[in-house]
Design brief:
With 416 residues, the chain is of the alpha/beta class. The protein is 27% helix and 27% strand. The longest helix is centred in the first third of the chain and has 18 residues. Flavin-adenine dinucleotide (FAD) binds next to helix 2 and strand 12.
């Protein structure tokens, strides 16, 4: 069924009895050409592009819970491509371009809203760093705009410009950045993949890999063994645990990241705003709630909940740039498990085990990467060579000394 304004009108007039389930609920088959482990945004996007762009058939996505139960449905929904390094920037710009055409592509309203993202500048050295980043973005074909405090005062008069400790000196805008309704992305890709024949199997946990003489022949699951020509893991926060089942130890740690939503307010924030002297990012949802977050909690965890010191730290960041946020009541908060890599950048690669592929290490920036990650992983699975924008996301880059360390923090996952 294709969705359209006409369809909504027709269904409205006939009692909404014609809507079909958005995807099927098939029984697992004994064998697939490609088995994707993890039905988050990245796994579903991979299945969709494998079927749509690379003409592969006989694909399954195995999800231990339900579609949207992981980080794809827990993030703060920000999309952008304002990166500095050549290993990252072309990839994230490719992703932003895919976001721009996504709703038409998979015929689903994902509420892609290019309402802009602004990184605030609070010092002269920070302005220099953002000027350099803006130039890197422009060189990669992205948009970037450095603005001074006077222009910001006109556009966002509610910010606390003259805060003695963190005065606002300007900002770096990416006007094409913004937000996307996160769980609609999972549903849209699931629907698109299902309509191309992909089996999406929920409540099916992968508990082991069938590895024979260095070749991965398939997976063991809570719903039986499934043979696979290729097995593609993308389980985000569970990466270390799942790859340990194949005997692999990854350069990844799992940490918890929290998100917060206030009660609904009248329209206030035109776009996404990030605090440059601490870690705080905020946007306003279409329902009016301020959606915000900050740093990870800073300790290893597989729990999908965080602790109070970080709640305080995040709210302090908000108060520093927009003190009126202190009047808003917090409605909800939750946590998600982040697969923090040692240099803050991801992996899309084959492993040393034939037929076993790995996608992970997205830290807390993987939502914006969803379309490009799916596309590039599908490219790797179909052609066995990396997509041109994802050539640096190799598992051996630490051994080679080719880190992609945007923040220059070194091997310190909790600081990326
Ligand atoms: C609070 C928070 C805020 C964030 N904000 C942003 C943001 O604003 N912008 C941004 O770009 N990124 C953000 N992120 C990061 C982003 O959400 C993640 O990097 C991204 O969603 C990870 O990819 P995914 O969607 O595939 O993960 P997930 O949705 O977590 O998918 C992985 C799936 O694997 C499944 N799985 C695990 N183990 C198994 C198994 N053994 N067998 C089968 N299935 C298994 C899980 O159940 C899960 O559904 C945020 C994350 C959090 C938690």
């Amino acid at each position: 069924m294709r969705y359209s304004a006409m369809r909504v009108l027709l269904e409205g007039l006939t009692g909404n009895r014609g809507w079909k389930p958005v995807w099927r609920d098939p029984e697992p088959k004994p064998q697939y050409d490609v088995v994707i482990v993890g039905g988050g945004g990245h796994g579903l996007a991979t299945a969709y592009y494998l079927a749509k762009q690379f003409g592969q058939q006989n694909i399954a996505v195995l999800e231990k819970g339900w579609i949207g139960s992981g980080n794809v449905g827990r993030n703060t929904t920000i999309i952008r491509s304002n990166y500095l390094l050549p290993g990252n920037e072309p990839f994230y710009e490719f992703s932003l371009k895919l976001w721009e055409g996504l709703e038409q592509d998979f015929n689903y309203n994902a509420m892609v809203s290019q309402r802009s993202i602004l990184n605030l500048i609070h010092s002269d050295p920070q302005r220099d760093a953002f000027a350099r980043r803006a130039n890197a973005m422009l060189l990669a074909g992205a948009d970037a705009e450095l603005v001074d405090a006077a222009q910001l005062r006109r556009e966002l008069p509610f910010l606390d410009f003259d805060n003695a400790r963190f005065p606002i000196r300007g900002g770096l805008f990416q006007r094409r950045g913004g937000t996307v309704r996160h769980d609609a992305v999972a549903w849209g890709y699931a629907r698109g993949a299902d309509s191309l024949g992909v089996d999406i199997i929920q409540n099916c946990e992968v508990t082991g890999f069938n590895i024979d003489n260095g070749i991965c022949r398939g997976v063991e699951t809570t719903r039986g063994n499934i043979r696979a020509g290729k097995t593609a893991v993308c389980v985000a926060g569970s990466s270390s645990r799942v790859m340990a089942l194949a005997g692999m130890r990854l350069p990844i740690e799992s940490h918890v990241l929290q998100a917060f939503v206030t009660e609904g307010l009248k329209p206030l924030l035109p776009g996404v705003i990030t605090f440059g002297a601490g870690h705080f990012y905020v946007s306003q949802s279409d329902k009016g709630g301020l959606v915000f977050g900050g740093d990870i909690d800073g300790y290893n965890s597989y729990a999908q909940r965080g602790n109070l010191p970080v709640v305080e730290d995040v709210c302090e960041g908000g108060m520093a740039i927009m003190p009126m946020i202190g009047r808003a009541r917090l409605l909800r908060s939750w946590g998600g498990i982040m697969d923090m890599s040692m240099d803050g950048s991801p992996f899309i690669d084959k492993t040393h085990i034939d037929g076993l592929y790995f996608n992970g290490g997205w830290c807390y920036g993987g939502f914006k990467a969803t379309p490009a990650s799916g596309y590039c992983y599908a490219h790797l699975l179909a052609k066995d060579t990396p997509h041109p924008t994802a050539t640096e996301y190799r598992l051996d880059r630490f051994a080679r000394g080719h880190l992609i360390d945007e923040k220059g923090q070194g091997a310190q996952p909790n600081l990326h």
